[in-house]
UniProtKB/TrEMBL annotation:
<dbReference type="InterPro" id="IPR035979">
    <property type="entry name" value="RBD_domain_sf"/>
</dbReference>
<dbReference type="GO" id="GO:0003723">
    <property type="term" value="F:RNA binding"/>
</dbReference>
<dbReference type="InterPro" id="IPR012677">
    <property type="entry name" value="Nucleotide-bd_a/b_plait_sf"/>
</dbReference>
<dbReference type="InterPro" id="IPR000504">
    <property type="entry name" value="RRM_dom"/>
</dbReference>
<dbReference type="InterPro" id="IPR034207">
    <property type="entry name" value="RBM45_RRM3"/>
</dbReference>
<protein>
    <submittedName>
        <fullName>RBM45 protein</fullName>
    </submittedName>
</protein>
<feature type="domain" description="RRM">
    <location>
        <begin position="21"/>
        <end position="95"/>
    </location>
</feature>
<feature type="compositionally biased region" description="Basic and acidic residues">
    <location>
        <begin position="94"/>
        <end position="104"/>
    </location>
</feature>
<dbReference type="Pfam" id="PF00076">
    <property type="entry name" value="RRM_1"/>
</dbReference>
<keyword id="KW-0694">RNA-binding</keyword>
<dbReference type="InterPro" id="IPR052462">
    <property type="entry name" value="SLIRP/GR-RBP-like"/>
</dbReference>
<dbReference type="InterPro" id="IPR034206">
    <property type="entry name" value="RBM45_RRM2"/>
</dbReference>
<feature type="region of interest" description="Disordered">
    <location>
        <begin position="94"/>
        <end position="113"/>
    </location>
</feature>
Amino acid sequence: VFIAQSRASGSHRDVEDEELTRIFVMIPKSYTEEDLREKFKMYGDIEYCSIIKNKTTGESKGLGYVRYLKPSQAARAIEECDRSYRAILAEPKNKSPESFEHDYYSSNTRQEPRGNTLPFCGQPEFCSFEKNESRIQESVSKRLSVLSRLPFIQEQLFALFDLVPGLEYCDVQRDPHTNSGYAVIQYSTAASAIYAKYKLHGFEYPPGNRLTVIFLDDGSDSSE
């Protein structure tokens, strides 16, 4: 995995220091910094670990940072660590930790997806969808259609949509007359499909190429 940066991002060294070597993880509240280091040292050389604590009580919030010496080590940790840690690249230090924690948890707030951070909830039930929300007016189903200006690679698209639990299949279809991408995605529940559409419609994958995600009729009763 390589994360590209725009030329406006500053020097390569600054970019590495600020954006590509720190990861943000969800951990058991019983973890100490030594526990955190022990779990993540297998992926590379760790510069430091820190656990976010409640300023009043001093208790762990169940969140922590791990900073590696190299971006490749941070990328490996995100790719290979247990899914329960929900590891993502940390925001630069110029963004307050409280703000980043809020973004990490508040999946109910619609925001523009960013190229290098996608804070998925581990389970769809963590993210509530109010019945009276106006955004869910279309007929929903467990099946999604994904469109793109660029052709899809089966394994990459599967890996992207598999971040949402319950993926049953990903079928990439090719049109010999155009260079566009088209795929059909199906989840085990409508809740997973709703969450995948909510997170990935408009997401740039690869960067600069926006995905269009819409519901496909799967023959089920959408009123459920």
